[in-house]
Amino acid sequence: MDKICILGAGSWASALANLLSDRCMVSMAVRREEQCREINEEHTNRRYLKGLRFCANVHATTDYRAALNGASLIINAVPSQATRGVLREIAPIWNSSVPLLNVSKGIERGSGKRLSEVAAEELPSCRFAVLSGPSHAEEVVTGEPTAVVIASHDQMLADQLQNVFMRDTFRVYTGTDVVGVEIGGAVKNILALGIGICDGLRYGDNARAAMVTRGVHEMVRFGTFVGGEAKTLYGLAGLGDLFVTATSPHSRNRNAGELLGRGYTLAEAEIAIGQVIEGIDSCRAVVQIAEENQLDMPITFAVYEMLHGTIPVQKIVSGLMKRERKSEFEDRGEVREK
Fold it and tell me: Fewer Cβ in 10 A, N or C end of the chain?
């Protein structure tokens, strides 16, 4: 590929632009003129990724037509809630032969749709793939060993993109379970918020381990209900991504949760983080789907209450601990008890 277009210029978009620029031209479509000038003139993106210096093959533009012109691949790296608007904006100038790789993690608020579904509606006949896994931008930029997965219903496309992204320190696996990869990326952010809240309350390692383990159980229940495969959710896109998000100081969602646990309001936490916290809107979407289908997801519902409810956090945690006794692997089907 001679040119790749990246929609967005946040931390993950910048890390991928840096990764790919050793082999091709990368055009980053940005909104703000100030950020565009910084990338092109100073070759930095300090607000989102300190210490990064782009090579000459990375160029930013506020003109979608210029960004897309001649591109062999489009990478969607804008926040999940902005994805539909951006795809709708580029639809009139999009070349339908050019595939779309989504690297944003979330579920659309209101519709409850995954981003592959959003892409199918806004870019009909789009060849779609999704990249996800435990991959903090800060470590990708510094060349730390990283493994991710690219999933597509089109195996040839997944194989092609594997070749595009593979590097000595960036290993890419392929798969066909688009739903599972998308759900893993969305739900792990919700769980990371909850784990961060526990950290903010200083509940310790035992509570964190319990949240991760029981959280994966909920992730698999939800993911398989909407059509994903359990093995995917136990892999890089699910358990792997949850592990790194729940334990790393680089995680916006975990850090936001910690602030909430320390007494910040949701608005104060969002201001302090300074970037989009995907788990907040994804939590709304997942809770809506779970309620409509009576799915048993106590941790997810508890996180939602912590984010938006009026019940004290300590009381919510106490409620989780006092739930009805059961076997560890007991599952009463999909129905959530009232």
Answer: C
Describe the crossing of helices 178-200 and 205-225 by its angle, rounded to 10 degrees: 150
Active site members: 188
Q: Which residue has the higher pLDDT, 75 or 333?
A: 75
Partners of 129 in the beta sheet? Answer: 101
Q: In this predicted model, what pLDDT tens digit does every residue of 273-326 receive, in sequence order?
A: 888 888 898 999 999 999 999 999 999 998 998 888 767 777 777 777 777 787
Task: Quote the pTM value.
Answer: 0.91
C-alpha separations of 319 from 102, 299, 311, 314, 323 in Å? 37, 10, 11, 9, 6
CB neighbours of 270 closer than 8 A, spacing ≥ 6? 256, 277, 280
Q: How far apart are CA 186 and CA 17, in angstroms?
A: 23
Beta pairing class for 146-151 and 128-132: antiparallel
